[in-house]
């Protein structure tokens, strides 16, 4: 056994040396801590808070450095200048999707989020076109959100100002908005199928943000051991089954001259390209694309809202100022609309500060370089995974004084007007920027103002005792569980 261990270590060292030597033949890799055989730098990172570890390493190695997650070489970009240079100034070169084993097993290079090459380009372009045709970023989508906010307000009234966990109800709005785009339908909040679907989304976020999944992505061989990844794959299989059922119903009722929703448009495109063996428009791609839109469009927005309400409970003076602005601009007798936002700088600043402060996806989804890249004085080989440290941009202390403090003033000028910031990148930036950014911005503003127009948020403990520290900070920042009372105003 001792001889076997020695051989494994020697082999690992040879592999690492060959990788290092191969890179140096063309140029110098960014600096970084010396990796250990097999495990790389994983022991030097806090898997419960990768973001914090990256900030510490940036102090020693600068804004561009190299890490090894297991045997996988990863270049980290830290700080606004490095991130902007890569994602915006040189967007095409950094537009690949980096290796993320857990999602590779789910997506198989299909969909929008986890695909690469022509599949990604064609699917993304098609999806954006369809979403715009269906009113994304326009009044038609706004109407759907407003309708769903009305259902939410009625559901919150039924809590009778009693303590409740807001997780499920906050997720219902973005999920039903996405359902209306994809399926041309909405679900009643009491529908068992809808409730199960929502449960899967919530569980999936918890699983992919856990330390175990950080290890799984560094060491894919863990796939064959027991662990929470098994539960994730089971949940996704059930979600895919749900999506397939909806697609079958659409196939039966499809009118190619009158598409009603995203699935109809995709099925028509599949029919047009059925003789093209190279076509990316396949049933597998449709299922994963719908799953991508569901996952990205539901859990990210609902988690932002859930975290946002927790911050407002912690800072009641902020809630009071938002409600004062709502009373002044909107009143109590009509629903908030997007036109109101330009006249509500404080509320707009609060929404932005919530997104900045919670830092929902601290290291972004991994990118990859699509070709050999000379970046500053360093060489990054084609296919190398690139980790974009969004936390370092959202928490830049020169752009946002006291970044560790929740302060809407970060987005207000001296006159109280809303102040834009190039450092505001919660949706990422460049070629891989979130497809649903305009939808999410609408939802966050309309849902938050809709809630505060109708309710005062009452915590169950003294605001000073509320802890807003995330319970996990891996792929996503997961807020702690809490209850509150929605007191009608």
Automatic annotation (TrEMBL):
EC number annotated for this UniProt entry: 1.14.14.-
Compartments, as annotated in UniProt: Endoplasmic reticulum membrane; Microsome membrane
UniProt KW NADP keyword: no
A Pfam family recorded for this sequence: p450
Cofactors required: heme
Signal peptide positions (record): 1-25
Keyword Hydrolase among UniProt keywords: no
Taxonomic superkingdom: Eukaryota
GO MF annotation terms: heme binding; iron ion binding; oxidoreductase activity, acting on paired donors, with incorporation or reduction of molecular oxygen, reduced flavin or flavoprotein as one donor, and incorporation of one atom of oxygen
Annotated keywords: Endoplasmic reticulum, Heme, Iron, Membrane, Metal-binding, Microsome, Monooxygenase, Oxidoreductase, Signal
Top EC group: oxidoreductase
Function summary: Cytochromes P450 are a group of heme-thiolate monooxygenases. In liver microsomes, this enzyme is involved in an NADPH-dependent electron transport pathway. It oxidizes a variety of structurally unrelated compounds, including steroids, fatty acids, and xenobiotics.
Similarity comment: Belongs to the cytochrome P450 family.
Protein name: Cytochrome P450
Organism listed in the record: Microcebus murinus (Gray mouse lemur)
């Amino acid at each position: 056994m001792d001889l076997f261990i020695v051989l494994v270590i020697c082999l690992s060292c040879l592999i690492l040396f060959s990788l290092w030597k191969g890179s140096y033949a063309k140029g110098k890799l960014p600096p970084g801590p010396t990796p250990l055989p097999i495990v790389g730098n994983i022991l030097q990172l806090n898997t419960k808070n990768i973001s914090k570890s990256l900030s510490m390493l940036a102090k020693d190695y600068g804004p561009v450095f190299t890490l090894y997650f297991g045997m996988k070489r990863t270049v980290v970009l830290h700080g606004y200048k490095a991130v902007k240079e890569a994602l915006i100034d040189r967007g095409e070169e950094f537009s690949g999707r980096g290796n993320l084993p857990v999602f590779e097993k789910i997506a198989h290079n299909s969909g929008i989020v986890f695909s690469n090459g022509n599949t990604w380009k064609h699917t993304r372009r098609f999806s954006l076109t369809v979403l715009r045709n269906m009113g994304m970023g326009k009044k038609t989508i706004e109407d759907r959100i407003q309708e769903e906010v009305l259902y939410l307000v009625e559901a919150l009234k039924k809590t009778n100002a009693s303590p409740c966990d807001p997780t499920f109800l906050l997720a219902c709005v973005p999920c039903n908005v996405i359902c209306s785009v994809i399926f041309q339908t909405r679900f009643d909040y009491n529908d068992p199928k809808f409730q199960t679907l929502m449960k899967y989304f919530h569980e999936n976020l918890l699983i992919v943000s856990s330390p175990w999944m950080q290890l799984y992505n560094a060491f894919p061989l863990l796939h064959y051991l027991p662990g929470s990844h098994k539960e994730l794959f089971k949940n996704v299989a059930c979600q895919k089954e749900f999506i397939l059922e909806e697609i079958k119903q659409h196939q039966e009722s499809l009118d190619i001259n009158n598409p009603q929703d995203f699935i109809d448009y995709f099925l028509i495109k599949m029919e047009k390209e059925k003789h093209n063996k190279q076509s990316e428009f396949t049933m597998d791609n449709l299922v994963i694309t719908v799953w991508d839109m569901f996952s990205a469009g539901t859990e990210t927005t609902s988690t932002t809202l859930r975290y946002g309400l927790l911050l407002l409970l912690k800072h009641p003076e902020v809630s009071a100022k938002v409600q004062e602005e709502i009373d002044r601009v909107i009143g109590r007798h009509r629903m908030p609309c997007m036109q109101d936002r330009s006249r509500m700088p404080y509320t707009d600043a609060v929404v932005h500060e919530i997104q900045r402060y919670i830092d929902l996806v601290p290291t972004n989804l991994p990118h990859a370089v699509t070709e050999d890249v000379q970046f500053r004085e360093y060489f990054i080989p084609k296919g190398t995974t690139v980790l974009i440290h969004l936390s370092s941009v959202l928490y830049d202390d020169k752009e946002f004084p006291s970044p560790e403090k929740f302060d809407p003033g970060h987005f207000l000028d001296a006159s109280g007007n809303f102040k834009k910031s190039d450092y505001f990148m919660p949706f990422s930036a460049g070629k891989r920027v979130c497809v649903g950014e305009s939808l999410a911005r609408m939802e966050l503003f309309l849902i938050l103002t809709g809630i505060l127009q109708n309710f005062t948020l009452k915590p169950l403990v003294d605001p000073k005792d509320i802890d807003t520290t995330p319970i996990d900070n891996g792929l996503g920042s997961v807020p702690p569980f809490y209850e509150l009372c929605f007191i009608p105003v």
